[in-house]
Specification:
28 strands; 6-stranded mixed beta barrel; 7-stranded mixed beta sheet; 27 helices; 747 residues; binds iron/sulfur cluster; alpha/beta; Barwin-like endoglucanases
């Protein structure tokens, strides 16, 4: 910390709340008299090197926003009336403890579901609370098919025994100047728009940094974006058909012998079986399925395979494919058989930095934190564990499509309460939003931990607990590198961090199990594998790059650094990259990737397509708003006042719609308002609109719920829908709709 003229400057690391995102950038917080006065990118931090997005730069407006919830609240009127009164933290904790214990005693701990949003700094605190309470039902409620990163994680894990990311030198302290690193000759950017967002521990602008150093781009995206217009090849596929494209590329590379024969020979299992499978995906058939010209598929596949090194950076669109895990498996095969796994400029294996667990991704990490007995006992009761092998064996999440139906029906066992944290379920991620509204209203008790009122707090909360932003909390992060900590530099009202809130509650539910004296004590315990303390990390600027060894590239399989037994090879049953997945075979699933047509499409539902001839793409990211957040922040909202829908000029003409006109997007699920934006970025039979819209300036109490019923696009997303594995498939990018003018011509 530096100080000049009474202004203290604190370097720190970002991980939700405030910016909302998956974080990891380094920022400098300027504080005067205990008040945050400015945020600036930290140029010494290797991850973002001083860069910052609009949301983090607007942090001051977020932290001191007049509508921020800064003390605990209890509902006094009926649910939805929006009447709350201030209570003390003691009363809040006592009430939550008493109500949840009462439900546990009557219905069992599994009757309480612990719901989070996306990969914010929550996976650690909420799984900690759920497991100390004894509930197996930790869930991203509303996220149909669990369609956010989990399918990609599963696809990598069942193939390589590890996760991987495109190598943009992010694991090396000297970054692009590190002699070990090599610039990728080409980067396939698949289903992601990296210039607007930094998801999953990856800083989007690294792609631009690589382009500046000579990387060519192959873009797989139905829309035109800044990046696609600078790509060497732009594959504008039909939404939901990425699986066919990946299998088609494998067909070309394998049949033309463009793969790395030495790597395949030495380090893969099941090559012949995979080769047989991809014969079904000839370039001509794939061109028909994806609507990408055959010649382009051939050229792009050959260019990728012949360019060494080459990397693949991917996004959410893959998780939302009907068989998301299988699509991720096929794309993982591309970088494996071309010899680009864990090599400079390829796709490097990514592990939580220094081996520190902050957010348990896998059952292995849960076992490490909570022990075999508890994890096994809970796994058997988890929603979806009997139906979906990956829910049981890969990731400790309850299956969200099944969870909401169980809340609604009470079968096979009742869900009586919800703890909702970092998740505006009703205004954000919930496909079948109306079903979520109706079902969650049936619960006996609902706690919401958030920073602002939103449709979820207004419609459901009995208790609202005020959460802290990243500038107001002590926490830690190891997703992927560097290892980082956040430290509290300001206090706003009575807000507490998610860790502080959940630590207190866990202590009340399991006093013997919670052996730490404080959150920092717990953090020190977790950091001990890195031989670091929280205090030391803060003093060294809040970050540290991974040491040589299992957590830092390259070619670790050749050095015995990946397997627990120290043998050469990969962390799989065979010790090889399993193109034929032994794990999936064991769990009774197809061991090889395959393509499945979207449940709604011109091919699978031609009659429905007749009625609703537009494929709706939602879920694109904005640098102004993170999911359903930030609509109340003036500096951000003034840049995008209204929710718009991108419509091709030909389509607008067909519907008689003009630019800026308020219209309805409609299907059998209902209709939602959007402002028309006539643009060539989308194809004539596609439209694109942002999700997570609600209007903080509108009335919050029922029936308005901040305009949720008019603007929440997920009211139109059907379900239940998930892949055969349990992970993947939410119809957020493939739902069929039509457009309708609003009679009175106004809002
Ligand atoms: S989006 Fe990127 S720059 Fe903005 S806060 Fe998150 S990690 Fe930092």
């Amino acid at each position: 910390m530096n100080e000049r003229d009474g202004v203290k400057v604190y370097p720190t690391v970002v991980w939700s709340a405030g910016a909302g995102c998956h974080g990891n950038c380094g920022q400098k917080l300027y504080v005067k008299d205990g008040k945050l006065i400015k945020v600036e990118g930290d140029e010494s931090h290797p991850w973002n090197q001083g860069r910052a997005c609009p949301r983090v730069l607007a942090l001051k407006q977020y932290v001191y926003h007049p509508d921020r919830i800064v003390y605990p609240l209890k509902r006094v009127g009926k649910r939805g009336e929006g009447k709350f009164e201030r209570i003390t933290w003691d009363e809040a904790f006592d009430t939550c403890e008493a109500r949840l214990k009462e439900i546990k005693d009557r219905f069992g701990p599994e009757a309480v579901i612990f719901c989070q949003g996306t990969g914010r700094d929550i996976g650690g605190p909420i799984s900690f609370l759920a497991y100390n309470f004894g509930s197996p039902n930790w869930c991203q409620l509303g996220l149909s098919g669990q369609s956010c990163y989990t399918p990609r994680l599963a696809g990598m894990k069942i193939t390589m025994g590890d996760f991987a990311v495109a190598d943009c030198s992010q694991f090396l302290e000297k970054r692009y100047d590190d002699p070990e690193w090599e610039v990728p000759k080409v980067i396939i950017v698949w289903g992601n728009n990296p210039t607007t967002t930094d998801p999953d521990g990856f800083f989007g602008h690294w792609i631009v940094d690589c382009m500046k150093r000579g990387s060519e781009i192959i873009s797989v995206d139905p829309r035109y974006t800044w990046l696609t217009t600078r790509a060497k090849y732009h594959l504008r596929l039909r939404p939901g058909t990425g699986g066919a494209l990946a299998l088609g590329m494998l067909n070309i590379i394998m049949n033309e012998g463009l793969y790395d024969k030495e790597f395949v020979e030495k380090w893969t299992y099941g090559f012949d079986e995979l080769k047989e499978r991809v014969q079904e995906y000839t370039p001509s058939r794939v061109a028909e399925i994806t609507e990408v010209p055959e010649g382009l598929i051939l050229e792009a596949s050959r260019y990728y395979a012949k360019s060494r090194p080459a990397a693949i950076h991917w996004g959410l669109a893959i998780d939302m494919e009907p068989e998301g895990t299988s699509v991720a498996q096929a794309i993982t095969h591309l970088w494996c058989i071309t010899g680009n796994l864990d090599v400079p400029g390829g796709n490097v294996i990514a592990r939580p930095s220094h081996g520190v667990t902050t957010y348990p991704y896998t059952t292995e990490e849960l076992l490490g934190l909570y022990g075999e007995d508890l994890v096994k006992k809970l796994t058997d009761k988890r929603i979806g564990t009997k139906e979906y092998p990956l829910v049981k064996n890969f990731r400790g999440w309850a299956q969200p499509d099944m969870a909401i139906e169980q809340i609604d029906t009470g079968k096979p066992y009742p869900i009586k309460a919800a703890w909702i944290q970092t998740a505006n379920v009703l205004g954000g991620q919930a496909a079948r939003a109306k079903l979520h509204y109706d079902a969650l209203k049936k619960l006996d008790f609902v706690v919401v931990v958030d920073l602002f009122h939103n449709p979820t707090t207004m419609a459901l909360a009995d208790i609202v607990l005020p959460a802290a932003t990243f500038a107001e909390k002590d926490s830690f992060r190891s997703w992927w590198a560097p290892l980082g900590v956040m430290h509290k530099v300001i206090q706003v009202g009575e807000c507490k961090s998610d860790w502080e809130i959940n630590f207190e509650m866990a202590k009340r539910f399991n006093p013997e199990g919670v052996k730490w004296n404080s959150v920092v004590d717990l953090i020190n315990d977790r950091l001990s594998v890195a031989n670091r303390t929280f205090k030391e990390m803060v003093e060294k600027g809040c970050w540290e790059m991974p040491p040589d060894g299992p957590f830092k590239p390259y070619r670790r399989h050749e050095r015995g650094l990946l397997r627990a037994d120290g043998k050469l090879g990969f962390n799989t049953e065979t010790g090889k990259v399993e193109l034929w997945s032994k794990a999936l075979e064991t769990w009774g699933l197809d061991p090889l990737p395959r393509y499945v047509e979207p449940p709604q499409s011109p091919v699978s539902t031609p009659d429905l397509y007749e009625k609703y001839p537009l494929i709706m793409i939602t879920g694109a990211r904005s640098s102004l708003f993170f999911h359903s957040e930030h609509r109340m922040i003036p500096w951000l909202r003034e840049k995008e006042m209204d929710p718009f829908v991108e419509i091709h000029p030909e389509t607008a003409k067909k519907y008689g719609i003009y630019d800026g006109e308020w219209i309805y997007i409609k299907n059998d699920m209902g209709r939602v308002k959007r402002k028309a934006k006539i643009t060539l970025t989308v194809k004539p039979n596609h439209i694109q609109t942002l999700h997570g819209w609600w209007m903080p300036e509108m009335k919050g109490s029922e029936p308005d719920l901040f305009g949720m019923w008019d603007y929440q696009i997920n009211l139109l997303i059907p379900g239940p829908q998930c892949s055969s594995s349990g992970f993947g498939g939410g119809q957020y990018k493939t739902t069929l709709v039509t457009l309708e003018k609003i009679k009175e011509g106004g809002k």
